[in-house]
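[agent] plan:
  1. take the single chain provided in the ticket
  2. run structure prediction with default settings
  3. attach structure tokens to the ticket
  4. add a short note for the reviewer (M.T.)
[agent] executing step 1
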Amino acid sequence: ELPDLSEHYSYTAKVLQDEPDLYGRLRSLTTSNGVTLARCIKPGMDSKGHSMFRIAGLVAGDAESYSVFGPLFDKVIALRHKVEVDCVHPHDMDASKVGKTRRGGRMVPSDPVDPDEEYVISVEIRAR
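[agent] step 2 finished; step 3 output follows
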């Protein structure tokens, strides 16, 4: 039976509350390494989170967890990143776009971080 999640504030809790039958379908499955659903959702059960800051509430015990428990992982990831479950991550390997930024729906040259190449040690790239 699904544990009481009424006081839990994780994306995992939200998915399981919205779809209680999902827990029943996945709880008896294990990966070839013996990882169970219980092991994956334990962080979310141990830490209830806070209503102002949701945590994922699950971890993959191994790579196979993403496929065996995919119905849960996919929905949690989609909620966390505000994307559709079936979205595809774009892969653009066009090097000519490096150093450009999107403004108003089009790519324009960005300002050089360190035009004289004297101070910049590293650069972080974030995708949203």
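[agent] step 4 note for reviewer: The mean pLDDT is 86.
[agent] ticket updated
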